[in-house]
């Protein structure tokens, strides 16, 4: 039998996304030898290909701008928003180190600038969101970091290589990894940091935790299969927690990223029209379309799928007219200084776009209400009741049940043909995993830490009770800070 290749180092970091690259940067600066393992053919993760920015308080930029929002407000709001189901020590440490982390990003070549939220309901929120100065430059700078880390020959970055197991006997002996040909290697080491990004790429874990897993548009890091969570659990770590999905907006496909195409079907998805769930009932004030996390949560709450209902008159109106409703994604695509459009239309291609979407199943058309209900498998009485009540709300400009603002009560749904856009809850990852202490060490049920292991980023329990809050940038901010915390703790432990 071929002998397993053996390496030796002080720290193994599993994953090179936000938390892993942050940990690596700290160890590199402090000259602590490490091997960074990355399953993909390049460094990255959701932090590189996805995230636009991050949350922080008391960054130098915020202080210079006189931002009047700090630790007390952030700690109180995040604790109460999560109904006290938080790891207070960890939350506190994250918040207190989040400002200094912004300065580190500059040193890493990933600069950010504090700016106003891109989401309409948060335009007047305190300045807490730090946006990468240039998305493409961020990706390029990230790709250059391995060269920097390995230049003096102390560290190694192994791409196409995944951690698969641990050799642990009253302390860590080695991390067992495999390259993408299945060839195993043994890395003898003192400490390991699991920065592998949660479990949204693990179909079994997803279906076990989420009833609606099959309906979700999964935009997260598919290479994240829960390695760190599973291996810590095997060593006795407490993984008890509510499942927390990083739900974020919705889209008319469970496979195609809405950013990847330009269709009127996407435009109408992003407006507060009439929505019904899989029981044909309205389920939320559709104005929630302007808050991505809460919009996603509302869809997740009704089984990950709902329908936007409209009739031919509405479709024709959009074809020929400008409508005073803002596309909820409009501000995401504005360059700095560009003034966002607060209306949509005319949409001259709308009929063609809908006809194409009917062929792909993203839109269903019915010649009358009965036909639509039949094709969608919805109870006809409930659908008729929902349309009647909604049309009444439009007529009276008064939504007595869900309280949608009068200026959004624009289109009744009265004359066939009727259309239903089939919407899926989009997710950016998962946000529950392992219980940790304030140093990001996994803990057992009795609270005692498991020696030599660190768990960071999306793998960690304790910041969210059950869903992502409407603060932007917490996930990525925490990922960078938690990687930094783990690396600093290792430094202390090795001293
Ligand atoms: C499209 C998109 C947009 C987003 N926008 C924002 C935003 O604007 N603000 C915000 O706060 N958050 C945002 N997020 C979430 C944010 O990116 C994540 O919370 C953050 O990246 C988590 O960091 P992480 O290090 O835990 O995981 P990641 O950054 O995903 O990194 C995990 C890495 O581990 C690697 N890996 C997995 N398993 C193994 C293994 N066994 N061995 C070796 N390597 C492994 C993966 O390949 C990956 O490179 C977004 C996410 C997406 C998908």
UniProtKB/TrEMBL annotation:
Alphabetic keyword roster: FAD, Flavoprotein, Oxidoreductase
Record organism: Ligilactobacillus pobuzihii
FAD-dependent oxidoreductase 2 FAD-binding domain span: 11-466
Protein name: Fumarate reductase (Flavoprotein)
Pfam family, one: FAD_binding_2
SUPFAM superfamilies: FAD/NAD(P)-binding domain, Succinate dehydrogenase/fumarate reductase flavoprotein, catalytic domain
Cofactor(s) of this protein: FAD
Organism lineage: Bacteria, Bacillati, Bacillota, Bacilli, Lactobacillales
Protein's UniProt keywords contain Flavoprotein: yes
InterPro entries found in the cross-reference section: FAD-dep_OxRdtase_2_FAD-bd, FAD-oxidoreductase_2, FAD/NAD-bd_sf, Succ_DH/fumarate_Rdtase_cat_sf
Record flagged with keyword Oxidoreductase: yes
Gene3D superfamilies noted in UniProt: FAD/NAD(P)-binding domain (3.50.50.60), Succinate dehydrogenase/fumarate reductase flavoprotein, catalytic domain (3.90.700.10)
Gene Ontology MF terms in the entry: steroid dehydrogenase activity, acting on the CH-CH group of donors
């Amino acid at each position: 039998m071929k002998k397993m290749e053996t390496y030796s180092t002080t720290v193994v970091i599993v994953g090179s996304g936000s938390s892993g690259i942050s940990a690596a940067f700290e160890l590199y600066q402090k000259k602590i030898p490490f091997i960074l393992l990355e399953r993909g053919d390049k460094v990255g993760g959701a932090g590189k290909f996805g995230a636009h920015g991050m949350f922080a308080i008391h960054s130098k930029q915020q202080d210079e701008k006189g931002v009047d929002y700090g630790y007390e407000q952030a700690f109180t709001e995040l604790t109460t928003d999560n109904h006290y189901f938080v790891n207070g020590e960890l939350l506190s440490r994250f918040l207190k180190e989040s400002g200094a982390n912004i300065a580190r990003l500059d040193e890493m070549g990933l600069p950010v600038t504090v700016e106003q939220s891109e989401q309409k309901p948060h335009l007047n929120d305190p300045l807490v969101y730090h946006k990468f100065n240039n998305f493409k430059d961020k990706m390029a700078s990230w790709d250059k970091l391995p060269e920097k880390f390995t230049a003096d020959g102390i560290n190694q970055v192994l791409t196409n290589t995944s951690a698969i197991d641990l050799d642990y006997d009253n302390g860590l002996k080695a991390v067992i990894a495999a390259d993408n040909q299945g060839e195993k290697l043994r890395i003898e080491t003192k400490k390991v940091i699991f920065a592998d990004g949660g479990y949204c790429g693990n179909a079994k874990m997803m279906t076990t935790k989420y009833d609606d897993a099959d309906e979700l548009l999964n935009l997260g890091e598919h290479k994240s299969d829960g390695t760190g969570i599973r291996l810590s659990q095997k060593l006795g770590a407490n993984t008890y927690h509510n499942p927390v999905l990083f739900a974020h907006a919705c889209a008319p496909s469970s496979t195609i990223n809405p950013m990847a195409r330009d269709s009127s079907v996407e435009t109408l998805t992003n407006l507060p029209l009439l929505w019904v769930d899989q029981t044909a009932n309205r389920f939320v004030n559709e104005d929630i379309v302007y808050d991505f996390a809460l919009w996603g949560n509302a869809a997740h709450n009704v089984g990950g799928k709902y329908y936007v209902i409209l009739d031919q008159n509405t479709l024709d109106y959009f074809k020929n007219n400008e409508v005073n409703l803002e596309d909820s994604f409009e501000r995401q695509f504005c360059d700095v200084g560009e003034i966002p459009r607060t209306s949509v239309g005319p949409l001259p291609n709308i009929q063609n776009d809908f006809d194409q979407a009917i062929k792909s199943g993203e839109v269903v058309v019915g010649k009358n209400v009965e036909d639509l209900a039949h094709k969608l498998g919805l109870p006809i009485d409930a659908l008729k009741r929902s349309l009647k009540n909604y049309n009444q709300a439009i007529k009276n400009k008064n939504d007595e049940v869900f309280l949608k603002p009068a200026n959004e009560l624009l289109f009744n749904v009265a004359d066939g043909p009727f259309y239903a856009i089939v919407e899926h809850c989009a997710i950016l990852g998962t946000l529950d995993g392992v219980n940790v202490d304030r140093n990001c060490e996994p803990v057992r049920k009795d609270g005692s830490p498991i020696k030599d292991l660190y768990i960071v980023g999306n793998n960690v329990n304790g910041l969210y009770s059950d869903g992502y809050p409407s603060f932007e940038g917490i996930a990525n901010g925490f990922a960078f800070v938690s990687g930094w915390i783990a690396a600093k703790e290792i430094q202390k432990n090795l001293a």
